[in-house]
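Field: COMPLEX_INPUT
Field: COMPONENT_COUNT = two
Field: RESIDUE_TOTAL = 229
Field: MODE = joint
Values follow.
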Amino acid sequence: DAGITQSPRHKVTETGTPVTLRCHQTENHRYMYWYRQDPGHGLRLIHYSYGVKDTDKGEVSDGYSVSRSKTEDFLLTLESATSSQTSVYFCAITASGARTDTQYFGPGTRLTVL
Amino acid sequence: AQKITQTQPGMFVQEKEAVTLDCTYDTSDQSYGLFWYKQPSSGEMIFLIYQGSYDEQNATEGRYSLNFQKARKSANLVISASQLGDSAMYFCAMRVPYNNNDMRFGAGTRLTVKP
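Field: COMPLEX_OUTPUT
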């Protein structure tokens, strides 16, 4: 258990509305990530953070923004949700493993945009 | 660009038998890491096993082993003595370490263990 929680766990919203997903970690990890999971694509990186106020884009960042004002919280915002952003969103952190730094994932947030 | 390919959308295996899930990768970097994750129907992503590009021996973790063939750029997951609880999606992933731990995932293989 890497001490990662995501909220909300499920959300249904309408096209054009703003949505913010929260990732919270309790173990002071430096790196945090947001992925989306879609059938046939595995997980794709949206944005990541390497420290407070330090963020960068991933593979599929269009339509998303992030913020990290505290070490423990990493927020993902959809400024104006679209149906193509219906997905399962996972937050992850990098933690030291037995042999290497390893990414560990939160429980996921299922987002439906109608 | 880094790419991970899992060519088996679905696999079936009889309980107690071994199964191999295929993963090939493409990178021009010499230093990289390969990971396997399990996603049961409950949805969480569970880390299973890791192989470094410079590791001389194949990684093993309990019933999981990684058949690493560097020249072929393959990193197949072998599950021995399959159990019903092994039924899940399995994802292969690659990390290029000099890009802030960026991970690239394959599309996944759905494994079904039959009693």
